[in-house]
Amino acid sequence: MTTPVCTSASQVAAPVPSYTRYTSFSSYVRARGPVLLRTARSLTANPCDAEDLLQTALTKTYVAWERIEDHRALDGYVRRALVNTRTSQWRKRKVDEFVCDEIPEPEAQPAADPAERQVLHDAMWRAVMKLPDRQRAMVVLRYYEDLSEAQTAEVLGVSVGTVKSAVSRALGKLREDPELTPVR
Hints:
The chain is built from 7 helices and no strands. It has helices at residues 18-43, 47-63, 74-92, 114-129, 133-144, 149-156, 160-176. 12% of the residues are buried.
């Protein structure tokens, strides 16, 4: 037996006291708010706009709260409200165009000298090679192989805390390396 996600307006449901609706909604927002905020942040470039977007979607959800029967589908409902709200905002966006005599050109950034890049690369590797074997392995796995702390710990057969502390000490040594001073 499948239950509909949202009841139609023609179906009459028993009235839910407002304090019950508020309590269940607020507990849902407390539990799922951070996850939904990450979704909103993926839809906008500005974190403040993401918070506003989430507030708007949650307001729409609260208004429809009594009609939503399957509360296991709430995340999907809110995500759809986020996407629809963002799409509406995007469509309403006013594009300002200003006529000007000259097209503004961005200042040209000087191209990085390949020889300087190679010198920096060599200095970095010399500094990394000065590290103790274990720290060097962790730095290489974390930053050159781009593994997470957990993946690095698994590969080396150590705890995540060991990876964190060893990498922290290694980065401290690299910061103090005299060959890398011009980089800072």
